[in-house]
Amino acid sequence: MSSIRGSRGAEMTMTTDQNTPAPALDIDALSVSFATDGGTLHALKDVSFSVPKGRITGIVGESGCGKSTLINAILGLLADNGEVTGGAIRLGESADITKLTPRQMRDLRGLQISTVFQDPMGALNPVLSVGKQMRDIQYRSNLSKREKDARSVEMLRQVRIPDPEKRLTQYPHEFSGGMKQRVAIAMALMMRPQLLIADEPTTALDATLEVATIELLKELQQEIGCAVLFISHHLGVIAELCDDMIVMYAGEVVEQGSVRQIFRNPSHPYTRALLDCDPARLHERVKHLPTIPGTLPDLRNRPKGCVFQARCALAKPECGQPVTSVEVTPGHIARCIRTNEVTA
Amino acid sequence: MSAPLLSVKDLRVVFSVGGTLSRLRGHVTAIEGVAGVSFDIAKGETFALVGESGSGKTTLARTLNGLQKVASGSIHFDGKDATSMGRAEMKELRRRAPMMFQDPVGSLSPRLDVRALLAEPFRIHGMSDRDLDAEVRRLLTLVGLPVDFASRYPHQLSGGQARRVGVARAVALDPQLIIADEPTAGLDVSVQGEVLNLLNDLRDRLGLSMLIITHNLHVVRQIADRTAVMYLGRFVEMGETEAIFRSPAHPYTAALLSANPEPDPDRVHDRIKLPPEVPSVMARPSGCEFHTRCPFAQDLCRRNAPPLRVNGGHQLTCHFPMNTPAQAGLEQAQ
Ligand SMILES: Nc1ncnc2c1ncn2[C@@H]1O[C@H](COP(=O)(O)OP(=O)(O)OP(=O)(O)O)[C@@H](O)[C@H]1O
Ligand SMILES: Nc1ncnc2c1ncn2[C@@H]1O[C@H](COP(=O)(O)OP(=O)(O)OP(=O)(O)O)[C@@H](O)[C@H]1O
Ligand code: SF4
Ligand code: SF4
Ligand SMILES: [Mg+2]
Ligand SMILES: [Mg+2]
C-alpha cells in the first residue's frame, strides 16, 4: 500500500516514515458505491492519497470521475443510496472517521473541516440575510452580536466584497454569482479549520479576482496553518495555487505527485491527454479544440484492467490485466504499465 | 453591411435595494446594474462578454430575454423593439433568442427524463402537434448524444452530457441567437472543448449568432469574433477579440488579461496588480470609475469621466489608453 502513497512533493520525500508527522488527511484504499436501478455503481475504487499538514493538494479529473463523491465521503455526506464499501479516512491523529456517528461527524465538520461547495447558490440559505448566516456560523464563539458582525465585515472585506456593512443586510439573490462564491469562501475561512475542502471555488470569478482569491487562500492557509484540498478544472489555477496534485479518472487515482512533477513530466496517458486539451496551451485560434475521444467507462461495469484502456492511444493487450502503480521519480506515482513511453 | 440581428442602445437596468427603513434614512435605494450599454450582434457572429464579477453581465443577458425590466434605452431584435413587446411577442423572442443559464445542470428538472426535457420547449410554445419522438432523436443526434439517452434522467448524466442536453434544448426551436451564461463552467477541459466545438459547429451549420458570457479568457479567444469588457455596469472596451488580446488598450482589460492563470507552475507572472478595494455600484467613483484601482490614474481621471473613443470597430473609455499600436489612430468621438 505504501508504494502508491508516500508523501508527495520532492521536498518532502526524504523523511522516513517514523519522522513524518501524521498528515492532515489520509485516505486509504477508499471505495464508494451507489445503488442505482441499473445495478451497483462503483464511483470510487481503491483511492489512496494523503494531504500533508500545511500544504495544498489539488484534484483534477474528468467531469463525473468522482471528485465530489470523494469530498462527500470525507464529510460523511454521501447521498442515501451511497455507501463506503472499503478503506479508511483519517483526519490528523484521529481513527477512521468513516466509522463515526452522524452526530460526531457533524461536530467534526463544525470544528475541524470547512467546506466551500461546488454550488455557491445551494450553500447559502435564500431566506436569511447574508449577515445573519455569517453570524450563525460563529455560534460557538462568545463574541457579542456586534463583534460577530464586525468579524463578518472584516472577512467580506478580505474576499473583496464591496460595501460589506450594507451587504450584511442583503439576501443571497441580491448578490452576483461570483459574490456568492466569495461569501462562501469567507464563511469557510471564518472557522479557522484544520482542513479546508474547496470544490471549484473560483469558477464564477473573473481572472483578477480569481488570482486575488488564490493569493488570499494561500495567505490565510499559511496563517491558519491548515491543509487544503482543492478541486478545480482550471489547470492554471492548480499550477499556481497547489503544492501537490492528484489526477483522477473513473473513480481511481491514476497519477499523483508535486504540481511540478506532473506538469513537467505527465506520466499517465490520461494526464497527458488532459493537459493537451487545455486551451491555455493554444497560441492560435483553432478550428477544432482538442478533446479526448470516447467517454468514461460505465461505472456499473468497470473494465477488468486499466480504467483508461478504451480511450488510450498506448493501450495493448496486457492493459486488460489489473494494473499496479509505478513510482516514476520519488513521490511521483502513475498507474500505467507504459509510463516510460508517455512524453510531455 | 446588413442590419444587425441584435441592437442594444444605451441600455440601463436599475435595482432598488434596502427596505423601507433605509429609504427613510435617506440611504441609496437604487443601483444601476447595467449603466448605459450599447452594442450590436450581427447574424452568425459570436460576441463575448467578459468582466468583473458583479459588473452586470448576467443582468444584461436576462434583460435581453425580457426577464429583467428595462429602465431606459432600447433593444432591437431583428428590427423589432423588444422593450415595448407584449407577452406573446416576448414569448416569440424567447423562442428565437433562448438563454442557457449559468447552471444548466441545476436548471434541468430532475423529475423529467431527457425525452421530456427536450419535448418541453415544443409544449411551452404550443407545438406539441409535431412528431416529438422524431424531434427528440433529431436533437440528440445534433448534439452528439446516442438516441437511447432519451430515457435517462439528469442525475444519470455527466456534467458534459447535461450541458449537451442544455444545448439541445436551446437549439430545439430553430433559434437565431443563443445567449449562453458560462456555458462551460464546471467542465473539464476536454468536455469543454467538446461543448465549444459543438456550439461553433451549430453556428456554422445553422447560421446562429451567439452571446457568450464567460470568465474563461482562453475560451473567449478561441470562439468569440468580438469581445466587450464590462466594469461597474458599463463597457470599458469593445472590439475584435484578437486585437484586444494582442494589445488591450484599457488598463482594466490589460489587468484582466495579465491575471489569467497559466498551466505552468514555474511561470513568472508579470501582472498588473489591482488594489483589492472593489468600488460599489452604490457609490460610484467620480471621473473615470476605474480610477480608484487604475495603476495609471492621473488627476484628470479623478475629475472628468473619459470620453468614448471610437476607432473603426474598436472603442474604449480611457483618458490615457495603454501604449499600443491601436492607440495611434484613436480619435475622439463627438
Ligand atoms: N447519488 C448518486 N446516485 C447514483 N450515481 C451517482 C450519485 N452521485 C454521483 N453519482 C455518479 O457517480 C459518478 C461520480 O460523480 P461525482 O459527482 O463525484 O463526479 P465529479 O468528479 O464531482 O464531476 P464534476 O466534475 O462534473 O462535478 C458519476 O458517474 C455520477 O453520475
Ligand atoms: N435581484 C437583484 N437585486 C438587487 N441587486 C441585484 C440583483 N441582481 C443583481 N444585482 C446586483 O447587480 C450587480 C450585477 O449583478 P450580475 O449578476 O449581473 O453580475 P455578473 O456580472 O453576472 O457577475 P458574475 O460574474 O459574478 O456572475 C451586482 O452588484 C448585484 O449585486
Ligand atoms: S495501462 Fe495501458 S491502457 Fe492504461 S493508461 Fe497505461 S498504456 Fe494506457
Ligand atoms: S481614464 Fe485614467 S483612471 Fe481611467 S482607466 Fe484610463 S488611465 Fe485609468
Ligand atoms: Mg463535482
Ligand atoms: Mg453572472
CATH fold name of chain B, please?
Rossmann fold
CATH homologous superfamily designation of chain B: P-loop containing nucleotide triphosphate hydrolases
Beta-strand content bin of chain B: 15-25%
Secondary-structure element order of chain B, N to C: EHEEHEEHEHHHHEHEHEEHHHEEHE
Q: What portion of residues of chain A belong to β-strands?
A: 15-25%
End-to-end Cα distance of chain A, whole Å, is 28 Å
Basic shape of chain B: globular
Q: Spatial order of the strands in the main sheet of chain B? A: 6-7-8-3-9-10-12-11-13
Rg of chain B, Cα atoms, Å = 21 Å
Question: Which CATH architecture of the domain at 9-112 and 232-343 in chain A would you pick?
Answer: 3-Layer(aba) Sandwich
Q: Helix count of chain B?
A: 13
Residue stretches of chain A low in confidence (pLDDT < 50, at least 5 long) are 1-17
Give the averaged pLDDT of chain B, no decimals.
88
Strand order, sheet with most strands of chain A: 5-6-7-3-8-9-11-10
Give the termini separation of chain B: 23 Å
Instruction: Identify the biggest protein-protein contact and residues per side.
Output: A-B, 66 and 61 residues
Pfam families (chain B): ABC_tran, oligo_HPY
Membrane topology (chain B): Peripheral membrane protein
Family (chain B): Belongs to the ABC transporter superfamily.
Domain ABC transporter (chain B): 8-257
Describe this structure in words.
The complex is a heterodimer of chains A (344) and B (334). Chain A has 11 helices and 11 strands. Chain A has 344 residues and is of the alpha/beta class. Chain A has a domain at 9-112 and 232-343: P-loop containing nucleotide triphosphate hydrolases (Rossmann fold), CATH 3.40.50. In chain A, the strands form 2 sheets. Chain A has an 8-stranded mixed β-sheet, sandwiched between helices. Chain A has a 3-stranded antiparallel β-sheet with strand order 2-1-4, with helices on one face. In chain A, a hairpin with a 2-residue loop joins strand 8 (244-249) and strand 9 (252-258). The longest helix of chain A has 18 residues, at 207-224. The two termini of chain A are 28 Å apart. Residues 1-17 of chain A have low confidence and may be disordered. Chain B has 334 residues and is an alpha/beta fold. Chain B has one domain: Rossmann fold, CATH 3.40.50. In chain B, 33% of the residues lie in helices and 22% in strands. Chain B is built from 13 helices and 13 strands. Chain B has helices at 20-24, 57-64, 87-96, 104-107, 114-124, 132-142, 159-171, 189-206, 217-223, 241-246, 251-259, 299-303, 325-328; strands spanning 6-16, 30-41, 46-51, 72-77, 80-81, 99-100, 177-181, 209-213, 226-231, 234-240, 308-311, 314-317, 331-332. Chain B is globular, with a radius of gyration of 21 Å. Chains A and B meet through helix 7, helix 8, helix 9, helix 10 and helix 11 of A and helix 8, helix 9 and helix 11 of B. Bound molecules: adenosine-5'-triphosphate (2 copies), iron/sulfur cluster (2 copies) and magnesium ion (MG) (2 copies).
